[in-house]
């Protein structure tokens, strides 16, 4: 698996989406966490602040704050973390290997159990770089000579 090629393609895709990109670099995600903590202590003052409060929550694990999607029912709903651009490769790799290279739909379902902002496009992009899947597909469609 060529991690650098995957990450380069992912960055190109995210840059083409400009402000609509759901995957942000770690620095931008950490800035959102800082903004959220500021809003909680001083109150929301701008439309951005209100939108941030509407969409996200902070989950404190030890001394580390994690950005998660807002839950409708915090007592019963499973929380879904927000991944940064740098984390995506390892997250999708673990999910894809965990299901035994089971394909796109299974990989997406596995990722969506814990992560909120990793898209189908990202999962399919990862699979396009997966050497095991390419070998598996080649064996499946091997031509029979007569």
Structural account:
The chain has 146 residues and is mostly helical. The chain has seven helices and two strands, in the order αααββαααα. α4 (88-98) crosses α5. The longest helix is centred in the N-terminal third of the chain and has 17 residues, at 26-42. It starts with a helix and ends in a 6-residue tail after the last helix. The model has no long low-confidence stretch (mean pLDDT 89).
Search tags:
146 residues; elongated; two-stranded antiparallel sheet
User: What would the average pLDDT be, to the nearest integer?
Assistant: 89
> Number of folding domains?
2
- Count of distinct strands: 2
Please state the structural category. Answer: mainly alpha
Q: Helical region count? A: 7
C-alpha-based Rg, rounded: 19 Å
The geometry reads as elongated
Low-confidence regions: none
Beta-strand residue fraction:
5-15%
H-E order: HHHEEHHHH
Q: Biggest sheet: strands, sense, closure?
A: 2 strands, antiparallel
What spatial order of strands do you see in the largest sheet? 1-2
Distance between the termini: 35 Å
Percent helix range: 40-55%
């Amino acid at each position: 698996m060529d991690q650098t090629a995957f990450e380069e393609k992912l960055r190109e895709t995210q840059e083409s989406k400009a402000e609509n990109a759901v995957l942000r670099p770690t620095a931008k995600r950490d800035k959102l966490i800082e903004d959220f903590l500021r809003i909680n202590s001083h109150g929301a003052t701008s439309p951005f602040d209100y939108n941030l409060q509407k969409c996200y929550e902070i989950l404190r694990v030890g001394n580390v704050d994690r950005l998660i999607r807002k839950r409708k029912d915090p007592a019963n709903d499973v929380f879904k973390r927000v991944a940064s651009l740098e984390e995506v490769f390892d997250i999708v790799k673990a999910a894809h290997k965990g299901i035994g290279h089971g394909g796109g739909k299974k990989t997406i379902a596995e990722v969506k159990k814990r992560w909120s902002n990793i898209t189908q496009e990202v999962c399919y992009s990862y699979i396009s770089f997966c050497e095991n899947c390419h070998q598996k597909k080649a064996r499946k469609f091997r031509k029979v000579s007569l």
